[in-house]
């Protein structure tokens, strides 16, 4: 089966590929769908539209008709999200243009055949007795539950989390009783670190709401600017440094070709670490791509 990456990138109004000018996407606050569409389109064909969603814009379900799907509908374009990312998360979102395509994509997400990769900048707060350093590769397998005020949390006491050999888990006997729990698994690799921050490439195996954010925070490394765990950052309007970087899906409605789409984070994503990175952002992304490839090969081999 052939693989295609992005196809020909769509161009913005300035003639640049999305993400080429980090400030352009960050400034996308218009409620004008044609403008948003022009600035954020990564890939478009007769079946799908892939956009590079700005941070702090909802895909669907926002009050006051400000989510992207409502804006598109009001402009006369009917789109259906094949998946969702959080409002504070930026990056690649896959939108179907017909019910059959949406059904095909939904099946792929349900059977976990869609490749998903995120980038995150996390704080090195650490946990008591655990130290602040994340391993080169890690696996977080912590069940999630929904608590008071619909707040997503790990379905176990924090002190019951055990981190050994780069793997975090809880014993079955420590899982909270009498609540609905959701098995959840997140893989990550360390792209770069210093004493204050770590840049991770993250591969969520499952796709629970807030999964990456909760998993990383509960092992002592919250995402920089995440309002779930840093109210001061939210009050200051800080950027949440989580970005949907890549998606890979199969065109089952056509010839079955595997398509990979990607969008680089904007400048605001890198702001907490940019002056300390050892090289260029492109070099960091190249390392992230190598690490992601290694994680995917290991997953396919069952190691």
Automatic annotation (TrEMBL):
A single MF term (Gene Ontology): pseudouridine synthase activity
Pfam families in the cross-refs: PseudoU_synth_2 (PF00849)
Catalytic activities: a uridine in RNA = a pseudouridine in RNA
InterPro entries, sorted: PsdUridine_synth_cat_dom_sf (IPR020103), PsdUridine_synth_RluA-like_CS (IPR006224), PsdUridine_synth_RsuA/RluA (IPR006145), RluA_PseudoU_synthase (IPR050188)
Disordered: region residues: 1-39
Coiled coil: none
Native source species: Streptomyces lonarensis
Annotated family: Belongs to the pseudouridine synthase RluA family.
GO BP of this protein: enzyme-directed rRNA pseudouridine synthesis
Entry superkingdom: Bacteria
Every Pseudouridine synthase RsuA/RluA-like domain range: 48-217
Ranges of compositional bias, category Low complexity: 15-27
Taxon lineage: Bacteria, Bacillati, Actinomycetota, Actinomycetes, Kitasatosporales
UniProt-listed Gene3D superfamilies: Pseudouridine synthase
Name of this chain's protein: RNA pseudouridylate synthase
């Amino acid at each position: 089966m052939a693989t295609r990456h992005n196809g020909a990138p769509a161009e913005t109004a300035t003639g640049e590929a999305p993400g080429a000018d980090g400030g352009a996407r960050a400034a996308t606050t218009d409620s004008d769908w044609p403008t948003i569409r022009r600035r954020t389109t990564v890939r478009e064909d007769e079946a799908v539209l892939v956009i590079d969603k700005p941070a702090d814009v909802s895909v669907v379900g926002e009050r006051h008709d400000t989510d992207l799907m409502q804006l598109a509908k009001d402009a006369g374009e009917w789109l259906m999200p094949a998946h969702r990312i959080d409002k504070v998360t930026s990056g690649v979102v896959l939108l179907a243009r017909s019910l059959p395509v949406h059904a095909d994509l939904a099946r792929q997400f349900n059977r976990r055949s869609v490749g998903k990769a995120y980038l995150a900048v996390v704080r090195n707060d650490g946990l008591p007795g655990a130290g602040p350093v994340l391993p080169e590769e890690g696996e977080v397998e912590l069940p999630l539950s929904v608590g008071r005020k619909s707040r997503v949390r790990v379905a176990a006491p924090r002190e019951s989390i055990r981190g050994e050999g780069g793997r975090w888990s809880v014993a079955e006997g420590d899982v909270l009783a009498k609540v609905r729990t959701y098995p959840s698994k997140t893989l990550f690799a360390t792209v770069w670190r210093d004493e204050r921050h770590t840049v991770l490439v993250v591969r969520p195996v499952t796709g629970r709401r807030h999964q990456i954010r909760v998993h990383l925070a509960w092992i002592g490394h919250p995402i920089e600017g995440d309002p779930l765990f840093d109210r001061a950052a939210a009050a200051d309007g800080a950027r949440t440094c989580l970005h949907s970087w890549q998606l890979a899906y199969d065109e089952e409605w056509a010839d079955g070709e595997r398509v990979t789409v990607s969008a680089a984070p904007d400048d605001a994503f890198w702001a907490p670490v940019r002056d300390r990175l050892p090289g260029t952002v492109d070099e960091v992304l190249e390392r992230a791509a190598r690490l992601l490839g290694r994680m995917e090969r290991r997953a396919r081999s069952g190691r």
